[in-house]
Each structure stands twice: as C-alpha cells, then as structure tokens.
Specification:
The complex is a heterotrimer of chains A (332), B (442) and C (286). Chain A is mainly α. Chain A contains 16 helices and 3 strands. Chain A has a two-stranded antiparallel ribbon. The longest helix of chain A is centred in the first third of the chain and has 25 residues. With 442 residues, chain B is of the alpha/beta class. Chain B is 28% helix and 19% strand. Classes of the chains: A mainly alpha (332), B alpha/beta (442), C alpha+beta (286). Chains A and B meet through strand 1 and helix 1 of A and strand 15, strand 16, helix 9, helix 13 and helix 14 of B.
Amino acid sequence: MNLLTVSGSPHVYTEESVSKIMYGVLFSLIPAALVSFYFFGLAAIMVTLTAIVSCMFFEFIIQKYLIKGPVTIFDGSAVITGALLAFIVPASLPLWMVVIGSLVSIGMAKMTFGGLGKNIFNPALVGRVFLMISFPVEMNMYPKPTSFSTQLTDIITGPTPLAVVKEGVAQGEKVSDLLPEVPEYVSLLMGNMGGSVGEISALAILLGGIYMLIRKIITWEIPASYLGSVMILAGILWMIDPEVYVDPLFHLITGGLMLGAIYMATDMVTSPMSRWGMIVYGIGCGFLTIVIRIFGAYPEGVAFAILIMNAFVPLINRGFKPKRFGEEVKNG
Amino acid sequence: MKTFKLGGVHPPENKLSQSAAIEVLPLPETVTIPLSQHLGVPANPVVKKGDSVKAGQLIAKGEAFISANIHSSVSGTVQKIDDVVDTSGYRKKAIVIKVEGDIWEDGIDLSKDLVKDISLSPQEIVSRVNEKGIVGMGGATFPSHVKLMVPQGKTADVLIINGVECEPYLTSDHRLMLEKAEEMLVGIQIQMKALNVDRAIIGVENNKPDAIDHLMKLIPEYPGISVEPLKVKYPQGGEKQLIKALVNREVPSGKLPIEVGCVVHNVGTSFAVYEAVQKNKPLVERVVTVTGKGVKEPSNFVARIGTPIANLIEAAGGIPENTGKVINGGPMMGKALSDINAPVTKGTSGILLFPQAETSRKPVHNCIRCGRCASICPMGLEPYLLAVLASHKRFDDCETEKVMDCIECGSCLYICPSGRPLLDQIRVGKNETGKMIRLRNR
Amino acid sequence: MNEITLISVISLGSLGTIAAIILYMVAQKFKVIEDPRIDIVADKLPGANCGGCGLAGCRALAEEIVKKESLEGMSCPPGGNEVMGEIAKVLGLEAKEQDPTIAVVRCSGSRENAPPKVKYEGDMTCAFAHNLFAGEGGCPKGCLSYGDCVASCDFDAMYMDHKTGLPVIKDNCVSCGACVKACPRSIIEIRKRGKKDRRIFVSCINVEKGGVARKNCQVACIGCGKCVKECKFDAITLENNLAYIDFNKCTLCRKCPPVCPTNAIHELNFPPRRQRPETKAEPAEA
C-alpha cells in the first residue's frame, strides 16, 4: 500500500480554481466580443487577438527569462488582461500600439508588482491610460459602427456620443439639440455607437455580468454601487438643469461605464475584500466618473476613476473590516 | 428555514452510510485507552500493570476541574501503562488492556428498557455525569459536567441540542437520532433538570428528514423540547453558529455560550448522559461512522473506546487498495491519521477513508484577493490577512485581527480557488498568539 | 518683464527665509541630545541586526553598552571578539575573550536513516507541521525538514540538503541563534566552535526508550550509556535515554564516537581515522 497522506483539515476542497475563474470571465466576454465583431468587423478581431497574444507573449518572456520562475501563461489571467485591454481601445488603433499597450499592462502594471494577485492597479486600465497619454490622436479616433466589414484601413471615424455631448455643451449648445445627433437609446443599448472595441453594447456586457453573478465570480456590490451612484449623481445634476447636464440613462449606456463597472472595477485583485468596502469603492468610482465626465478634460472618466480608486483599496481594506461575529453590538 | 447568517459553505454531503443501521462491533483482542481523550488535564491512572479489570470500572481519575474520568471499556488484564502512538503520531500515555471475556462492573444496567423517571436531583446528576466520564461527543470532547454547572451570576434559559451533523460523510448522530431517539430525549430532560431550564431545542439540518419526522412524532411526550429543522450549511454544528441559527443570539467574542443564556450539548452526549444517569453506565463505547468512497460497506458501529481503528475499517469491508488518507472525524475538521492502529477515543465520530486521487491538495497559486475566504468565514474574519500576518510572524496584528476567534472550521481552505494553505498558517498564528497572550496575562 | 522677475525673486526668497527660520526653531525645540558614543559604537557593530546579542538590533546593543558602561554579559556573535575588542578600546573598557560558537544540527534523521512512514501535504513550514503530527519519519523529536531554520537565517549560512532532508550549517555561521528560535523542536544548538572547527556532539535529541527511538530512526541515541563509560572527562551525561556532551568539558579526544552502537555521535572536521573498522573490534590495544 502507498504511504498515507497527512495534512491539516479540511480534507475536501472546492472544484473552483484560479484558471476556472479566469476562463469563466473570458467566457462571459463572448457576447460583448460578438457585438463588436459585428459592428467593427475584422479590425476588432485583429486588435483583440493581437492584445491577447502579445500579453501572453510578454508574460512568458518575463516569467521565463527575467524572473526565471514558473511560467503561468495558461492560467488565463494574461488572456483576460489582453482581452480587456483590447476592449477599451478603439478598433482602429494601429496594431503596434496595441502591442505596446500589452507590454505596459503586463510588464509595468502586473509583473513588476510580483505577478498575478500582487498588482495594485488594474493592468488593462494602466495599459489603456498609457496609450491614451502617449497616442492621444489615435486613441481618440473611434471608428463608426457599420455592419460587418473586413476593412482594415480608411475606416470612417467619429466622436463617441459622450464626446458629442460634452463638446457641444462646452460650446454652449443645448442638450436637447445635441441628443438627435447621437443614435437612439435602444440603438445605443445594442451597441450601435462609436467607441472602444468591447464597450459599445451595454446589453451584451450586462449579459456577461449576469453570467458572472450566477457563477459567483463577481458579487453584486461593486457594479450596483458604481452604477447606482452614477445614476444618482447624474440624476441630481440633470434635475438641476436638463439642458446642460445630460440625463442619467445616457451616462449609463454610453462610454465604458458598463464595461468598467462589471469587468474593471470588479477585478478581484484590485478591489476591496469586505462588503462595505466594496460599496464604498463602487460609490467612489461612480463619483469620480461623473466628476471627470462632466467637469474634467476628458469626455470619458471610467478608466481614471477606477485607477484612482484602486489606489485607495488598501486603505479601504483597512478601514472597512467585515462584521466580526460576536462583536460588541449596541443594546446587547 | 432557519440558519446562521454570516458566511458558511456547502461542501458535497456524501452521506454514504446514512441508511446503515448501527451495528455492534465485536470485541478486539486488546484495547488501548489513552489517558487524555478530553479537553483539559489528562486523567491519572488508578490501576497498575497486571490488575484485572471489569468493563465499566474506573481506571483513571480526572482530578482537575476540567478533566474527565476514564473507565475500562472491556474486562481483562492491564498489560501496560505506557506511551502509545496516538492519532497524530506523537506518543501519549495510555492503558493497554488485554480483553478476557465481557464481564461488566456490578450495578450497570445493560438492559434495553427505557427508564423515563428521573429520580436524581440536579446536583446528583452533575456528579453522576462527572463520575461516569461524559465528555462532548461532537468532537471537541469538553467535559460535560462542567457545562452542566452554571457559573455563579449567570443563568441558562435554553438548552440547545446539536443534531446538526454538518460535517459531510458523517452519520453517527443521524443514526443515533433515529435509533435511540427516546433515550436521547430522556437524556435531554435530565440535562434540562440539571441546568434548571424549561426549554430545549434540537437543531437538525433538513438533509435528515427521517430523523426530523421521527423526533417530531416523539416530542409531544416530552414537554419543553422542540425540534427545529435547519437549512444545510457548514459549520452549523459550531456552537456559536448553532445558537445564532436557533435563538438568534450572538455569543460575544472570547466568551462562552452561557453568556447569552445557552448551553449546547450534542445528541451523542445526551444519549451518554441518559446511560450514565438512568443506567449507571459510564462512557465506554460510542457510535463511529466508517465511510468513504472506496469503502465496501459504509457503516455505523458501536465500538468500545480503545478499539484499534484498523478493526473498524476491517469490519466495514477492509481497507481499499488505493486508500491515500485515513481521517479521524469528518472531512472538514477531522485529523489525518499517520497510523491506523491508533485507538478509537471518546471524540471519534467517524473514520473516513479517502482514495489516493482525492487526497492531494490543490496546487498552490498566488492569492488573487478574490475575498471568498472573507465572505464565507462564519466568524467574520479575514483569513487571507491572518494567514499572511501569521506567516510573517506578526502575532500582535493577528491578535487585533481577532485570530483567537477562529473556530478552525476549515471553510477558508475549502473555498480558496488558489489552494492556499490558509488554515494551516492561521493555526500557527493562533497557537503563537495564544502563547503570547498567556505570557502577558501571567 | 523686469518687474515680474524682481517680484518672483523677492517673494520666493522671503518664503525660503521664513521656512528656514521655522525649520531652525523647530529643530532647536525638538532636539534630542544623544550620547555621541552610541553612534561610534553602532558604527563598529556589523549592522546585520540579527538579534544574536539578545537585543532588538545593533543600535539597541550600542545603546545598552553605552548606558551600562560595561561589556559584561554582552556579546556580538557575528562580530566576535574582534568587534567587541574594538568597542572596548573606543570606550576604554575591557572585553572578555569569548570562545567562538557555531550552530549545530542535532539530528541525523535523513530520509535514509529515518524512512518516511507517511506523506505530508500542506503549508511547508515546520511550525505548522510540528503542531499537526510527529513528522514523516515518525520521530517526535526529529527534523521535519521543511526548512524554517533556513528561512530564518540572515547570513546565508544554512541550506537544505534535499537528498537527506536535513539542514546543513556552513562555516560562515555567526551563531546569531535565529535558527535555534525558528526550530519548533529545538534541534539546533549553539555550541563551541572548537579548535580548528573540530566538534564532537550527539546528533540526536530523542528521549524515547531505545527500542522505540530505533524503530523510527537507525541513528537515534538509544541511551545505552557506552559513551558515558568511555569518557574520562565526565563530559557526557545521560538523562531521559539521551546522552549529551558538554562542550566545555569535552577535550575532543575522539574516544566516544567509535563506541556508539548507532553512530549517533558525530565528529566534524577531524582527519580520517587510521584503522576505523578495527577500533571497534579491539579498542584496548589500539
């Protein structure tokens, strides 16, 4: 007979594993990917594949030759970083820029901190922000959605709905005059608007979010508090002056908010641990998003909002502990 | 359906032996009775090598306040009193008795008749429970008479009976509730009398509907006792979780259940109390589940204390060829054995055999900070943090993060997708922090 | 243009002056007067902060030395007599020459000598494994071989021999004692380094009865007492089935290792014996 094994209790373990979670997230991204492939065509597919492959490649290079440690490129985390990075850049972005973004995501935001689980900032967002600052022109040219095209060059580009409204209002135009310039809300919900590869269809992203909620990959706290606080803040401003501030529903379904709230802010590594911590974090993200969108220089504030809140996560973890069992309760 | 609110997990139940009736295990050739089968100070032997003893005879006396008497479970000759390998591989003092026949001490009622009338006074009940060496049979083996004595200035108003059996695989309490329900109910009444409470609640998880039905049918005859079905969730059998689930009271951190007027006993303990008080029979045998996926006949046995575990496995169809781990207790809190010849003790509720394929832990990855351990911790702790603090030897911080509240239920290690040895590290932290606190209080 | 330059120079200059005055006043107010000798002593110390002296670090030792104005009972294991001598010179004190010491692993329960009886899985630290079970080899006092001691060593003076599963202490050990504290079983002992690094010690701490200890491990001390009889200097004592060699009394005569029936007594850094097999057979004549 073989030697008996001795180990500390418990002796049963869940079926869940890191790579199962990662591939679960990847699976949930399929609807959003399909929508973008439909609207942006081959360009979107190329950007996505380039980002995924280059992220895995850089992780491999760094783990194998720089750290000389175990190579874990198939645990799914690099794939997700790649996919998410691709989802938040324009489909028209030159592929070499995508590669640079991947290098920054993996090399700077993830591996320098010690790899999976050790990073403070969401790698994909760091990559995007880096690109946005380095290549502002290319990063602000969004291709117009068409039904499936195989065109890779000479794509017609235009501003995102958020940019249309923001610039219009800045030039003194009224919101009611600007809204007809963007597609209808139902159309926006389906993803028929200019924007980054994967962020266009709020509906497809919601679908993925629901799958992740059922799989218990994410919890409801962050998306709910994030979207809720955006709704409330935008709603207050809208009620003050509907001609200057656009209505909350518009904020909800345009730009990268849905993708950010469901995929970026909920990134396990860079979000708080306790329930109340998550809610505070979500509200912070929502508040910053609206502040940047309405008062900031950029039309879109999701990436900055989440990165700023990422920096506060250690502090939130310290301040918002889970409720301990048997803690001193008021009134006994 | 009631349950506790904070945290909890639901591992696959795998109650393979739940329909196997309790069988009496044949007597072994020798029994090895450890002197420390309970929480607290080990008992002192009162027999010598060469003495002949009868079943039920006192062989070691628990002299400290938190200690328990130990009785011979068989009749025969004391072979030696020596250090013997226990379940963990360390050597502990034990009395080894060679079995000769099966003669019981005088005054022990071995008949199966149900004795309902409780003639003893509360003080007499407590001293009888003490005398007969009853300890908590759920696994913690805390001496029961200590729990039956309400400390000065405190009052108990409800007795909680733990029939939850939240550990997967184990079925000994389940079978006991089905087969010895009336004895157990009388036992509960005895405990109620000793504690001077008029209310007792039996908490049973609803994966045992037959036991709930059976008890429901019987309780009208026993005033004050009620049965509460509970939603299946681990670790509902933890006393703090059970109190929260049944009467919605929260035992304060670092305090005992009596603080909120509750006393918790296991169904097995209630049965043992019945036998001690009504039948004058000491705790010399207990129900042990022998189960596991490879086991030929998953069974429930009544085994004498001190029987080698190997005998039980033999009786359940022998040890399967591919066995990789033998566990004393349930899969969540049981101890892996290094030697299957270790004896059955008062706290052995089950023997679990795992095939080779299921013994290995998951490969360890980096913590991905998913926070699952914190969300399922039934004590509201942050296992990921405690584990890191403990492995960096920051025991002061462990204390402020309430490591001493950890009930070592194992939910965190169970749930961790990265396969991190959270509980292993927390245990070290708990040990060292405990040492530190004791040093400071000295 | 000129005006702007002038204004900025004046405003910046005055700001800087004000800040400098504030800083100076604060520095004066919160000035801590410290014995300058502490710095001098601390400079002499190796600065490893190993804790071998029993204090929190090199600075703490320097403070303690200056405060007490004596070197009585103080030592710096990594620095040794040299450093203490220098400190003594600086402070005008007298340093007692101390014998150099080194850490010694008192277990030989390698995988060959104490074959594993079970397999362990989980957190690979001795601290946890010690609480859980007796160890893969079965000896409750034996080395667990998960390397808490190696992890605690700040001087790279230890490594784990993966073949035997035992830690090995290199000659650059400074005997700071970190490994002694890290070992949950107290297997490692600080002993006298000995002349030419020669040492003789009982490489076992098992106190079980001979037969029991031997069952788990071939090279366990079985407490037979042969070495005690052999020793002419009363350096070996036998207590709880375990022999112990007092390094202050041992003269390194090499009489005891050959008589040990289980080879539990180790001798290190000695030249090879001339007629090793014969010594056991006819000890009187040789």
